[in-house]
Amino acid sequence: MIFKISQLIFLNFAAMKKVYLDNASTTAMRPEVIQEMTKVMVEDYGNPSSTHSFGRNGKTILELSRKSIAKHLNCTAQEIIFTSGGTEADNWILRSAVEDLKIERIITSKIEHHAVLHTVWVLKEEFNIQVDYVNVNSDGSLDLTHLSNLLSEEKKTLVSLMHVNNETGAILDLDRVSLICKQYNALFHSDTVQSVGKTEIDLQKTPVDFILASAHKFHGPKGVGFAFVRKNSGLQPLLFGGEQEKGLRAGTEAVHQIAGMAKALSVSYEKLDQERAYILDLKNYLIEQLEIHFPDFRINGKKDDFYNIINIILPFSSDKTSMLLFSLDMKGIAVSRGSACQSGSIKPSHVLNEMLSETDLKLPNLRISFSHYNTKEDIDWLIESLKTV
Questions:
Q1: Residue 2 confidence (pLDDT) above 70
Q2: Is pLDDT at 45 greater than 60 in this prediction?
Q3: Looking at the structure, do residues 302 and 232 belong to the same domain, yes or no?
Q4: What is the predicted pLDDT for the residue at 344?
Q5: Is 103 among the domain residues?
Q6: How buried is residue 348: exposed, middle or buried, by Cβ count under 10 Å (0-12/13-18/19+)?
């Protein structure tokens, strides 16, 4: 009897409408990407460091992928280094800046991704560097006047500030911060994981020193990414072994993943204007529906933050906070309360902690993030499901 009931629950869940609204966490791979990766895995399995024809074919795919990525960011292919993703790239750049470039101080913010924050904490312990934090405004933006004031202290400095916040969608003005850093002769590293493939970045126009990307954030495969390292930076490797990636990142390159990443980035930029307009329309539709059905809801941040992310406080009692995600999941809806990298934590979001009062932190909040695969019907189902919480 118990088995039959469990089976019925499973079948009911399997037949349920599924709505994926957690695209800031990861995205579904495009069919073109899967096709490209499958071809490479089947036909081009040679080690790109080998000198025979199988290896040369792999090397060709690798370098064409590098050129393709560089073209979309308007930089040179030599400035693109393949990594396992954003976390590795953040760790590498920050650690080498301190160890090899002799950076004495890192200026960052308390709303960065933990790949930056935790690395900075470790570097402070290991090397006794100075760490300063830029003030965070109540809307999640950063106080750039405070950044300038911090930089006025003459010290060999690296600034590490993310382009688009992964929890609120708050946007940093990369051009302005790049110029501020140049004015004070500081290096500038930006975690661009949430923005590469979703907005234009011109690395000739924007003099940032280091950026990075993870393919799974723009409909590519997991486990692969890249770092842009401006030429003559002086960075040294984090991993040692072979001479891959110009000696800066040892280990046999995952050719099929890199090819998939390059394809995903190309398609994302080819369809950027069309998909951005479509997703922004979905976001505005969600806001309209929330205003109708939950008029006391609030946006954590600004309405015009990044187009595919919105973080909201719902007008529910605080006792519904712990069960909110579970309740929505039971209705087939995937959303989150913040970064997937800390989703198992019972602590409130470190990002919202810098923006909200203690009272507001206890209230139910959701991060809803869209892709071009979403529809207005998905939003209607979210609204109907929230009514039953």
A1: no
A2: yes
A3: no
A4: 46
A5: yes
A6: middle
Pairing of strands 105-108, 130-133: parallel
Q: What is the pLDDT of residue 8?
A: 47
Beta strand pairing call for 225-229 and 19-20: unpaired
Q: What is the number of domains present in the chain?
A: 2
Same domain, 169 and 51: yes
Domain assignment present for 191? yes
β-partners of residue 181 are none
- Interhelix angle for 114-127 vs 86-99, to 10°? 20
Element spanning 352, H or E? helix 350-353
Active-site residue list: 341
What is the per-residue pLDDT across 233-254, written as a single tens digit (0 to 9) for each?
999 999 999 999 999 999 999 9
Residue 8 lies in a domain: no
Q: Answer whether 0.90 is exceeded by the pTM.
A: yes
* Contact in structure between 279 and 27 (CB atoms under 8 Å): no
pLDDT (tens digit per residue) in 196-209: 999 999 999 999 99
Same-domain status, 188 and 259: yes
Q: Residue 285 domain-assigned?
A: yes
CA–CA separation, 370 and 304 (whole Å): 15
pLDDT surpassing 60 at residue 189: yes
Listing DSSP states for 179-245 in one string gives: HHHHHTT-EEEE--TTTBTTB---TTTS--SEEEEEGGGGTS-TT-EEEEE-TT-----SS-SS-TG
139 and 209 share a domain?
A: yes
E strands in the chain = 19-20, 80-83, 105-108, 130-133, 157-160, 187-190, 210-214, 225-229, 298-299, 309-313, 333-334, 365-369
**Domain stop point among 270, 288, 310:** 270
> In which domain, by residue range, is 295 found?
14-24+271-387
User: Does 170 have pLDDT greater than 50?
Assistant: yes
Nearest to 387 by CA among 285, 311, 294: 294
Half-sphere exposure of 189 (CA within 13 A, CB side): 31
Q: Residue 244 has what pLDDT?
A: 94
**148 shares its domain with 69:** yes
For residues 97 and 59, membership in a common domain is answered with yes
pLDDT digits (tens, 9 = 90+) for 148-160: 999 999 899 999 9
156 and 293 both lie in a single domain: no
Span 111-132, average pLDDT: 98
> What pLDDT, on a 0 to 100 scale, did the predictor assign at position 16?
75
3-state class (DSSP) for residue 246: helix
